[in-house]
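Input (structure):
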């Protein structure tokens, strides 16, 4: 009898959403704040969501939207608030979250650059998922700057940093 492969859980990141992200994003699509980073943040975040009870739907949108409105790969303190405005603009048609989930997404994006701690586990998991990818810019994630207990696990930091470093080697080693 033919075996049916297990179905991968459907991603919330639709082709339509990717199309509007491509229109919005001003930096290099494959660069340090681009789609490869978003994919690793998504993977980090979904892992943390399984262990913490964070809302995986919010985590997934955060991963793909939080840096979408950067105007620079350097210091760009306005990019979180701009991502909030962008999410409000595209919510209808592209973001399938209820009002509570959407408010968590906005809070996570607004504060993701400078936020230290947040009382909500979903916002905390979003911030950690992003910070666990800091090795791509040569920064070892600092457990004191991570909000959730699973993210502070040295093995979790090591694995996330190894994935980021592999990407750096491919990205900067090209050509
Ligand atoms: Fe990021």
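Output (sequence):
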């Amino acid at each position: 009898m033919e075996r049916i492969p297990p179905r991968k859980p459907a991603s919330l990141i639709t082709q339509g959403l990717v199309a509007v992200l491509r229109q919005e994003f001003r930096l290099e699509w494959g660069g340090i704040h681009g789609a490869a980073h978003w994919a690793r943040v998504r993977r980090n975040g979904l892992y943390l969501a399984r262990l913490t009870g964070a809302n995986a739907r919010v985590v997934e949108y955060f991963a793909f939207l939080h840096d979408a409105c950067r105007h620079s790969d350097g210091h760009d303190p306005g990019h979180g608030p701009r991502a909030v405005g962008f999410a409000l603009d595209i919510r209808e048609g592209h973001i399938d979250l209820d009002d509570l989930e959407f408010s968590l997404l906005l809070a996570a994006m607004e504060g993701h650059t400078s936020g230290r701690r947040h009382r909500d586990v979903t916002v905390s998991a979003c911030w950690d998922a992003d910070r666990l990818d800091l090795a791509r810019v040569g920064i070892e994630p600092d457990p004191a700057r991570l909000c959730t207990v699973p993210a502070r696990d040295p093995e979790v930091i090591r694995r996330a940093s190894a994935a980021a470093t592999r990407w750096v080697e491919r990205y900067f080693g090209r050509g």
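Notes: The chain has one domain: 15-172. The chain has a mean pLDDT of 94.
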